[in-house]
Design goal:
121 residues; 21% strand; zinc; metal ion binding; Cyt_c_oxidase_su5b_sf; metal-binding
Length: 121
């Protein structure tokens, strides 16, 4: 038992004798939050830093005239996109529909929508 206690004391003494170097507080610096980000989050942060407030095209778009000759243009990265049309201002539902490239689509309220090419991130 005495031998075991002596080994524990020696190991504690060795542990206490180990020196740890600390950097001065003035040398410590947290990296910028963009340096920590990766993947889509990084692309989004870089796009926002460049001035693009809607890098993924998720903001609500206001409808224009919406005629067959001048449809509402919807930016898209893909060949098709689902959109929602609030047909009346005080409507309590959204009319969802798929819009395909080069095929203008007419909503039940009479407005026309057309996909246009959007520049991906």
């Amino acid at each position: 038992m005495a031998l075991m206690c002596r080994n524990v004391k020696n190991s504690i003494r060795l542990f206490r004798a180990a020196s740890v170097t600390f950097r001065h507080k003035s040398e410590e610096k947290l990296p910028h939050y963009i340096e920590h980000s990766t993947g889509l989050e990084r692309k989004e942060l870089l796009a926002r830093a460049a001035g693009n407030d809607d890098p993924f095209g998720m903001n609500v778009l206001k409808r224009g005239a919406g005629t067959k000759d001048q449809p509402n243009l919807i930016p898209s990265f893909e060949e098709k996109r689902i959109i929602g049309c609030i047909c009346e201002e005080d409507s309590t539902y959204i009319n969802w529909m798929w819009v395909h490239k080069e095929e203008p689509k007419r909503c039940s309220c009479g407005h026309w929508f057309k996909l246009v090419e959007a520049k991906p991130l």
